């Protein structure tokens, strides 16, 4: 049994007593996220992200494309990776060369490393910990897309934000390739000298899409 299979077996065992209607309950929770993600919850997420040295911009849904283009222009990003399923209106105004990644034509590690950045969506965000979670769904792509390029521009909708980790876990499928991001990649040596960009992007920029009034 591989390590992955062993971990999944443990997850299945832990969930053995979960009621059969759990998927329906999970969907109900997801449907009601928007009622919990307004006001203080978004403020907490923004503050946590800023604490982690991420760049954060509050935007309205109709401004995502324009704000993404502005962020990429400030960065000087001319070649940007986009995963399958990313809304066209987010990427089309970008003014950069878009490098499409797909299962049939995946970009090489060399291509990803040479790109100026990546633009993605997310699955869930946790306000309390300032964590953004990708699960490989539409607009997120495979894990390498958010780990190899030095700059990650991520769009987080208000209805994807939950207060704490337990809520996020209930919404996620443990069988999917989950990437948990809490700020830019960073580590420190024994003298606590901070080094960024060692095992992920050096810069994380977030467009936090506020709920409609």
The name of the CATH superfamily reads: NagB/RpiA/CoA transferase-like
Computed CA radius of gyration, to the nearest angstrom? 18 Å
Order of helices and strands: HHHHEHEHEHEEEHEEHEEEE
> What strand line-up does the widest sheet have?
1-12-7-4-2-3
| CATH A-level architecture | 3-Layer(aba) Sandwich
The main β sheet shows up as: 6 strands, parallel
Instruction: Give the helix proportion (percent range).
Output: 25-40%
CATH class type: Alpha Beta
**Which of globular, elongated, flat, extended, rod-shaped describes the shape?**
globular
The CATH topology corresponds to Rossmann fold
What does the average pLDDT come to? 85
Number of strands: 12
Spans of 5+ residues with little confidence (pLDDT < 50)?
A: 31-37
> Span from first to last CA?
51 Å
User: What structural class do you assign from the helix and strand content?
Assistant: alpha/beta
Q: Strand percentage, roughly?
A: 15-25%
Overall tally of domains: 1
Total helix count? 9
InterPro entries: FTHF_cligase-like_sf, LUD_dom, NagB/RpiA_transferase-like
Protein name: L-lactate dehydrogenase complex protein LldG
Organism: Nocardiopsis flavescens
